[in-house]
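request received
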Amino acid sequence: MEYILIKVLEAMATFVLAFIVGMTYGGVVRKITGRVHNRLGPPWYQNFIDAFKLFSKTRGIHHGAMHFLGAAFLMVTSVVSLMIIPILAPGGHAWYNSWFTNLNFNGDLIFLIYIMTFGPLGMAMGAGQTGNPNSSIGVTRGLSQMVGFEIPWVMALVALMITYKTTSIVDFMNIQRETGTWLMFANPFAFIAAVLAMLGMFRYSPFDIVGAPTELASGPVSENGGKFLFTMMSSGSVFTFAKLVLYVDLFMGGANNLIMLVVKTFLLYMIPVLYGIVSPRYRTEQAVRWFWGWPTFIGLLAILYAVMF
Amino acid sequence: MLTLILLLFLGGAIVTWLGNKLSPVVGDLLFLATIIIPAGMFFTGVTVGEVTHLHALGLTLTWGLTPLSYLFSMIVVGLGILLAIYAVPFMKGKQKTGAFYFNFTLSVMSMLGILVSKDWVSFFIFWEIMTWSSYLMVVLNGKDVQRVGIKYFVFSAIGAYAMLMAMVIMNSQLGSFLLADTFNNFQHLTTGNQILIPILLLVAFGVKSAMMPLHVWAPDAYSNAPMAYTGLFSGALSKMGIYGMVLVMVTMINQLPEGTLIRDIIAWIGGFTAAAATLWAITQDDGKKLLAWSSVGQMGYIIVGVAIGTPLAMLAAMFLVVVHAMFKGSLFMVVGAIEKQTGTTNFTEINGLIRKMPWTFISALISVIALAGIPPLAGFVSKWMLYEALIQNNNYILVILLFFASTAGFLYCYKFLHGYFLGQEEPEWAHVKEAPVAMVIPMVLLALGNFVLGTFPQLIFKPIDAAMQFAGYDATGGRLWGESVLFTEWGDVVTLQPILYAVLAVFVFFALFLWFKGTKGTRYVSTKDISTSGELPKEWENLTFKVNFMQPFERAIEPFLKRQIDKYYTAFGNGMEALFEFTRRIHTGNGQTYAIYAILFLALLLLFRVNLFG
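response:
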């Protein structure tokens, strides 16, 4: 019992870390976007204010059971991914290292790919129950885009798997510690393919087709305010952080302490953000086909490289 | 005992048919008894390894149960019982109930017969009974008999002839009809026959398991049969093809030097089947058709696993065989329930059934999550094992293809759920009620089975392991799977229990977090509660997005969708028709023409009499 309690506390610590870092990143991105647009932009802690405000708001309406469950499904994906992905490298010696192990040894990359789709599917169900056509349109766009970027992403992962004969994330980090080479240099094609897939995964422009603003439309009410938006916002932040950590773990050797973790994830995060700020938006079929073009080709190169060398 | 069970099925089928003429209630009861009594006898009385000999018509038929066939017959009998319970309320008030019961029972009997056959003669006889009974089911509703029925029949005939030819060659060369003899003496055949026989058999089994390019019959046949039967059709009947394929793979192909090449080809065909069928499923607007294509796709995964044939791949394929029967059985039951309650299965016509048919929705949701392969449900276990097996077996490109197929699978999964259960509710469907209890219980049970097997797959791995040891594999328990743990030879691990508990904990916590003060004091907005910004939609206007649902994605894969094997078959069929037209000029059916032929023939004989008769 005590063991489980400690595990739960550690999981909560991890969640709080991911929440804080993710929210801060969100605020910083808003600031950067503002400056690029020649605006002042909100302060970096604006997201925390928003979250607090949303959390304390009450709601006047509800949409039915599936709508409640949808947001909970979304949170499952974020939190369980965070539990599976090792936050800190196993070789680190900081005093807090053991806090962040969670479920690291219970799942592998293929598991992760699948659990990552659990939330969006559940959220899509919740959105569908409101009956608003825009929700359904967004869902079909999101799913289509997922099929797009999944191909180069899986290719990059398969390239790594066949080189090192493992699918466990912890093993990949150990390999990088032992050889002293980051996998982004060991198989550069895999890294490039993964980064290109990342553009779609983070849904910044030109791949922000899911969250694309539409005109104000008449139709069935679809309200995701208050706690719903709070849940979705925190889930988004946590998930962003988890995905960034996964990239750092796989390609940049993981991080031994929290400071290195923040530096590495932030640098990586700037790729989709900065590319996004200066890009217009694709149509759905353009986005899907884009991923099946050069990124897939580079993914093939990554596999070839892994087979040959 | 086996003979008795099969005879009970056969006798029961006839008695049910006659009883149904007497009174529908008697028919219902007799039908249930016919399925459940022999099924119960099967579960309690039959032991693996028992053999019976039957002497008939100068032939000795040998029947017996192996661990491999026991695994498959568990699916047949288990699914048979649940679908029989489901079928009684489903068929209530419909026509041709007697014929339905008759064919249903015969199908179950013939499948069991195939599984217990130890010689090719009884195998073939049962195979044909299975084909006939399913054919009669496909054309039961009398719609599209020309197109659907004939397509199914032609392909079944191709498969049957291929199998018959293989049987005859084997018997003439080896002098035995026994399965064991033909497998053991396979080396005594000539090299040409060693290649020919497995290919003929694979064609025969490929037709039933809807392997591309022999799949053309499947989507139409699956969707045209009554839904209470399609669960069995897709869940169990198509698995007979897989059963045969496993037999061929582990015995014949293993002895061939070209075995790896054949395995690779079959695996690629399977992978292509999975991907292409998934894309076609996405474009369907009818739930039956969507599930039918999805079945074809799932069979593709199974074929890949069987063809690769490493212990892990085989384990994955066999697990998927069991699990697919469960979630697809449940999903076809869902469609059947919706058809029963609303009278249509078209996504563009039905909306928002979630509040009206909650239990149907729950079983659909769980089954779809299992179908998509998302943890912690059962579909994930087989997907994980299959990918690991492919990567470890150096099938890199094939694994990408399967990943693509399974990701694209999410699209039709969502389309299915959204199509029936979500969207704006219409007053037109306000009268719809939840399906009868006898229909709901089987589908909920199957869905729950997926849930349990997702965390405790060892329940099924044990019989699978026994079957695989019978087929010549080493024991896999403790090496590739344990109590709620999956392993690979590379040392990758997934422990299922902690994951299940984490998922449940997070899910329950946040569901309660949102629910707290969520409904009390707040107003429920129906989907007809319109907010407006200027233009006001009228009461009768339905705003649900259903038509061209996945259009952006369909645009992206447009070049692919232009190619259809069906079109080539149609072109081939038209070409053949032209040929038949030509022969019809000779065979006019007119007596006078034939008289002329006879005279001409006599004239020819007279002309060449010297050359011919000396």
